[in-house]
């Protein structure tokens, strides 16, 4: 059995087939303190996260698109890869993604972050044009351009929720 608390505070319980509901209930009850702690952490992160006006969002999207287009062109040439369209959105759970067709999607809030984080995200997504997974071969492609990618990735994990 497994428990997950999403950023919005939703609690998900996964139970294997054949487990009786009473057993699942006991499992949840045994972990109620852990669940409450995680929900409180989610609320703290949400309270610390700034609220952006529509005007700020639109300005951020324009800036992000400009910055990300430049960085995609620069790094794609260095890495010898191509890509499709570059789209800037406000995803709730992702900073970037690369579709099977090579289209790149980025979160506009990257424009608020240090430049080295943008570089890491762009290289990360472009590396999917070589390896469409997160295998050791994928990370080797990232490391060719961003040798300290682990530090940048950790920074994003530690600080991303603040944006």
From TrEMBL:
Location of the YgjP-like metallopeptidase domain: 1-55, 59-159
InterPro entries given in the database record: UTP_pyrophosphatase-like, YgjP-like_metallopeptidase
Domain of life: Bacteria
Gene3D superfamilies, sorted: Metalloproteases ('zincins'), catalytic domain
Pfam families: YgjP-like (PF01863)
The name this protein goes by in its record: M48 family metallopeptidase
Organism this protein belongs to: Enterocloster hominis (ex Liu et al. 2021)
Lineage: Bacteria, Bacillati, Bacillota, Clostridia, Lachnospirales
């Amino acid at each position: 059995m497994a428990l997950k608390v999403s950023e919005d505070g939703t609690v998900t319980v996964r139970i294997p087939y054949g487990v009786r509901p009473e057993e699942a209930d006991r499992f949840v009850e045994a972990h109620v303190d852990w669940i409450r702690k995680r929900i409180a952490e989610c609320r703290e992160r949400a309270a610390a996260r700034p609220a952006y006006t529509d005007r700020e969002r639109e300005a951020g999207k324009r800036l992000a698109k400009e910055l990300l287009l430049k960085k995609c062109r620069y790094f794609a040439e260095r890495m010898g890869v191509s890509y499709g369209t570059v789209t800037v959105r406000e995803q709730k759970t992702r900073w970037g993604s690369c579709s099977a067709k090579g289209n790149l999607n980025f979160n506009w809030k990257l424009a608020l972050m240090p430049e080295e984080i943008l570089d890491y995200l762009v290289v990360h997504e472009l590396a999917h044009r070589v390896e469409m997974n997160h295998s050791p071969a994928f990370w080797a492609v990232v490391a060719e351009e961003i040798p300290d990618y682990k530090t940048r990735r950790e920074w994003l994990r530690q600080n991303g929720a603040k944006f």
